[in-house]
Specification:
There is one protein chain. The protein is α+β, with helices and mostly antiparallel strands. The protein has helices at residues 86-102, 110-125, 130-144, 187-198, 211-228, 234-242; strands at 3-16, 20-27, 31-37, 56-64, 67-77, 165-167, 172-174, 183-184. The chain has 2 domains: 3-77, OB fold (Dihydrolipoamide Acetyltransferase, E2P); 126-242, no CATH class. The chain has a 5-stranded mixed barrel. It has a 3-stranded antiparallel β-sheet with strand order 7-6-8, with no helix packed on it. A hairpin with a 3-residue loop joins strand 2 (20-27) and strand 3 (31-37).
Length: 243
């Protein structure tokens, strides 16, 4: 029975039995994978720290009957600072939830893993306001998975000149004729989204927006994700409760 190393981040943890844990890890080269960490809930367990939410680790595992069992964990980054601020923590938990719910078991998504890690680093270090960092992640994430909104000057329904209307269901900007069910998208919010689409991970967090634009982005992305990913996450609802 050989062992292998899986490098990834814990995006969900669940109790298993009296002392063990079931983990969902978003892993390099593998995407979403389930691991079992026996005895990880014991206070003196060598696996305790590495099986916490956010932990980015090398998991040494062995496979038995198509299940992975953790033998050893080498922590690369714990992202402990995320736990010290409720705004950072709530946004980070939401991002993990979004990735976990949309990932497919066994499908490699290294670009999304890199995006997630970069965003958590930015959040942990306080380099960007938490809600804005979360929106930036959402914008880039939509681009990466191939369902980014259409922000061109043409109506995404008929091809005529688009106005300032954004239609979440239609998938982007629309003309006045098709504005029913849309909302106005300010130039500031549109420019912010276009900037993120055009930038690398290193540069896309290097801007700020007004409170009005921030509120606008948050609402538009919430509607767009609800329609095109077809899910309403409880972790996002929790953020609303603490705001």
């Amino acid at each position: 029975m050989g062992t292998e190393v899986i490098r990834g981040i814990v995006v969900k943890e669940m109790p298993k039995g009296e002392t063990s844990k079931q983990l969902i890890v978003f892993a390099k080269g593998m995407g979403k994978v389930w691991l079992t960490a026996r005895g990880a809930r014991k206070q003196k367990s060598k696996l305790l720290a590495g099986t916490q939410l956010f932990s980015y680790c090398d998991f040494q595992v062995y496979e038995s009957k198509k299940y992975y069992y953790v033998e050893q964990i080498d922590i690369i980054e714990s992202f402990y600072d995320l736990r010290l601020d409720i705004d950072k923590f709530s946004q980070a938990v939401y991002l993990l939830d979004l990735v976990e719910k949309t990932a497919v078991i066994g499908m490699e998504q290294n670009n999304v893993l890199q995006l997630l890690l970069k965003t958590l680093q930015v959040l942990a270090k306080g380099k960007c306001e938490p809600k804005l960092a979360s929106c930036i992640f959402e914008i880039k994430f939509l681009q990466m998975i191939g369902i980014m909104p259409n922000l061109t000057e043409k109506c995404c329904i008929c091809g005529k000149q688009a106005e300032q209307y954004f239609h979440a269901v239609a998938g982007g900007m629309v003309c006045a004729e098709h504005k029913r069910g849309s909302r106005t998208l300010s130039q500031g919010a549109k420019s912010a989204m276009q900037f993120v689409f055009s930038q690398s991970f290193q540069n896309m967090f290097q801007f700020t927006v007004s409170a009005e634009v921030m509120k606008e982005l948050h609402k538009i992305l919430e509607e767009y994700i609800a329609v095109h990913i077809n899910m309403q996450l409880q972790t996002r609802d929790f953020i609303k409760k603490i705001e």
